[in-house]
UniProtKB/TrEMBL annotation:
CDD domains: Cas10_III. PROSITE patterns: GGDEF (PS50887). This is CRISPR-associated RAMP Crm2 family protein. Keywords: Antiviral defense, Nucleotide-binding.
Amino acid sequence: MSEPTQNIWLAKLAAWTHDPAEKALVLLRDPAGHEGGTVRELQQTLFPSGIGSLAAHVKRADHWASAADRPQFPRDSKDGRYAAWTQVRFSESPTLIHPLSGTAYPLRKLEIEAAHIKAASTAHFKGLIERDANGQPDIRKTALAFWRFGPEIDTDGLRALWQLLPADTRIPDHTIWTHLDLSAAFASSFAADESASPALLSMSFGPVQDFIAQARTTSDLWAGSHLLSRIAWQGLKVICERLGPDAVIFPQLRGVPLVDLWLRDEVGIHADRFAQCEWAKDSNRTDANPLFAAALPNKLVAIVPAAQARELAEAVTRAVRDFVRDTAAAMLADLLEAAGITNNPELPCHSQLAAQLDGFPEVHWAVVPFAPLVEERTGEVPNTTELKNASSPFFGDGGFLASPAWQRLSRPLDLEGTQFYRPNAGVLYPAIYELLDRLAASAKSVRTAPQRPNGGEQGYRCDLTGEAEWLTHDRAHLTIPKGERKQAPTLWNLAAERRPGISRKDEHLSALAMLKRLWPSWFVKQELGESFGIDTQRFVISTHTLAISTSLERWLAAGAPVDKGARELLDKARAPGSERAALPRRLVRTLYRGKEFDDDQRTLARALPALMERDASDDPEARNDTADLAFKLLGGKPEAYYALILLDGDKMGAWISGTDDAVQIKTRTTFHPQIRERMKAHFTRTEHQDYLDAPRAVSPSRHMAISSALNAFALTLAQDIVENRCKGKLIYAGGDDVMALVAVDDLLACLSLLRAAYGGLPVTDTLRDTLGVDLTRPTELRLGGGHAVLDGKLLRLMGERATASAGAVIAHHSAPLGAVLRSLRQAEKRAKNRGGRDAFSITLLKRGGGATELTLPWRLADAPTLDDSPMQALAALTRLFAGDDTSRKAAYVTQGWLPHLPSAAQMPREELQALVTRNLTYQIKRQSAGDPVAQAQAPLLADKLASVAFHPRLGDTSPAETVRDVLAVAEFLARESRALKDR
């Protein structure tokens, strides 16, 4: 290892040990002080001779990180101690402040002695030291082990809180881990070269939406998103290998399965450390494994040495493009081998591949250094003249440097004769990031990628994308029309004849389409290894399987009777060549828990969807033997509809930039409640109040908090909700956006839980019962206060002020996936635009034609929960219509009289709302005469629906249209998903 490289890892590890992880828990309790325990022991073990000149870099990095995230506090002029009023005993008053909402999250008082905490922490970190062949600490591996596993401790009483321990008990809105990460990132940049100047680097890869949307199957849909996530990791890996994953501010990489795989298999961190990770468990050898989650976004922001920024960006660009090219070339070689064609480099498919992949993926980057834009001056405010000059073409006289926040932050603040706040260069992170964001946007607008397909391509186009020629070993084949191609000895026909699963329905694909189509099997075989043990032909749930899962769950709930049609179906299922369908994880768990079901029942459940898909006819009126047998087995016609969900966080750019008033919080809200109260007696001057009322400045820890919250949502909660609480399949969860397939009877529950989980909104018993969802199995999930507790772990989310909009489409399983995806995008846009954000929009596509579009806000007011919300009203109506004693005729009758309502010009709005309420009450009661519960609920439901329809937030949407569409969706869901009432 070269000296500059060694210095990077030494500085990083030294920064990671400058503060103990347990600092908040031992302050004011340990006579040795927070630097007298874990820190001293670790530094003596790791650096017996000290770190010499690197100590200055670590100290400077700590100051920059601290200044970016919190003020200094006044000290006593005599003994140098912090003033008594600024001290907080966190062990006695443990409170976390949500960094994005300012909400206080009180915790239970900790009943653990300081000595026990210190001993547990010391043992934890000593156990993470990686050693070389001579038994000496391996600095690089140890730094990476500390980064990855430092925040995870297996000690009773500490496990749940450990990941969110604050860096400063007085301002508990950022964790010790973000402080250590940031300190390590700055320290390694300072130590990397003589310039000792860090820079912010932004990079993005694309295209995204178009690449994902080109899909004919759910496997294509998953493969496109997962491949883009894998490409993003290939670029991120360059930075991680050189500077460590802590250098990456966004996305946060700790706990990402692909990163873990790299740490274990390439870096060489001891495999036992990963044994408890979900992705590493032998019991998780299915597509439910987190390694199959598309969890990385297409954009990164990192702190890098300024002198290396350009070379790093170019290395990342080469890495992602080489990965795509090399993977595609290997896939093509495999395709040629399957077809029995000699892999001659002169074959046309090789030149096609090179031309079609030229410039893919598109890569855009920008970099902004701290120096010389920010000039540090000892004892003075940093000089920002150069930063102003660089920013003026983008912001003029505006931007962060002209904001009230900087006007206050740029001035020192004294308190009772002592220093309370002194700005240094770290405080200017918001201005550096702001300039970076504008530069990155400019880079995207002026850089052009090579046009694909190549202008010289003249043959027939790819069957999936329709953009480029399909790959061929003989250009003469490109002139054969699709209808005449079936018997021709094309590359794709020959390969499919020998390996039937390599393509489907005579498809002929271009380079990008080949990458997507072959990625599932390639990822498993080449990247995970054959020992992973999963059927790569059938590991993504089909739309048909997802639809029928509603009927299968009902059949299982009835004890899975096998008396009607079962024997013939079993014979079909066990015939040579018969496939088994990939079922939703929740069904699989039901099937295989205990001895409730035997082998015949399990075989039927897994084989039935595949048999029905195999024997399906294009004629909707046609009957076949398998369908008749399925009707007998299931006791009715199998469900034919499924749902597709797209949820996206609102105003994510504003959250990251922190410039929108709606996403800002005052500085005073970030202090511990005790400090806030005591400040009243000490912050007596106008400048003190100005400081407290100034917006909390954007900081690296804010960006880390956003990324960590999105990770918790995307990597942990989204999959748990979609696949454990509902019968669904997560397609991708790349931070603030989620795409998922879900059974139609779970649609409303899945949408609601995803929205609640995004912001950490509580799910009350009332809402849970209305949705019919179980939050206790397989593990308990609790939401509230901007946090989640899952399986005993405390997770910080985006907070109650963060909102998300969602689109959903209910479609027949045979509907073309491309058309369904277009409808999904439109639904999500309606939620953002027509719904005014924080809304959901459901499109109902009936096979017989016609579409219903329902767009409603999640909440009618700034409510802390989804109780009494439009979604709850929709779910309650669905449950009512699904009841055995309630007729859905109320929906039809109501839709008949709605057009005849008086207009707003003819009747005051309040009277019109009362009229609708009375008529709805009457119709619901009339159609539920045999159900006393429904009779009692009718006035409440009618009033709730009318309140939704006439609410001002719906803007120009006609109340009659809203009532009509709510009833149409509720009636359809009740008709298609009777299982809802039983859960």
